[in-house]
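Weekly puzzle thread! Below is a chain. First person to post its structure in token form gets bragging rights.
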Amino acid sequence: MSPRCKVAIVMGKSDEGGEPHRQQSMVVVPLEIPGVIVQRSTSVFGYDDSGHGGHAEIVYRNVRVPRENLLGELHGGFAVAQARLGPGRIHHAMRLIGMAERAFELMCQRSLVRFPFGRAIAEQGVFRDWVADARIRIEQVRLLVLKTAWLMDTVGNRGAATEISAIKVAAPAMATWVIDHAIQVHGGMGFSQDTPLAEMYEQARMLRIADGPDEVHKMALARREINRFRVAPTT
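Winning reply:
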């Protein structure tokens, strides 16, 4: 939806009878050519950022582009997508750590100036438990993301597959937990535009679905772990 966006990358079926990973292709489609219809901007949790970007619903009606607009090889779209998903998921996880740190900072600052029943929230035992849990969760995910990035550098996407799946599940879960508790400390203010917490929660919650839902990543991770313990048949 950004006015600067001039092309779309479209992934579609190019060989329905091919191998499962060789059925799709990616092509570059200029948005101004006939048949490309931008229907509307879609909101996420009610947030509409169409003025700066955002997600569009697009209809392609008898759109034709030249063969040189193909990205990579014919029927190789799945490989192109997978090549960027590993680094992309690390990028998501890094952003989530940053959001969690910002929420943690706001939570602690608010706890020192809010005095329900005449006592600062920072002095409440349950809040201190939240602080300890938040710091532990953030650092656990940070170290897992660092390990995943190191594996990407040393053994590549395939060698880091388990860790990539793990951070895609762990990072959004951690961030939503920390942000949710920060909202709780702010009370009604946490839901409003006076803090970034509500929008950060929306982004963190959305990332439990974007680039594959939690359940898919857990399924893939579990399959790889179980396969490590399968005994090869003897001949």
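Puzzle host: Confirmed. Bonus trivia for everyone else. DSSP finds five helices and five strands in the chain.
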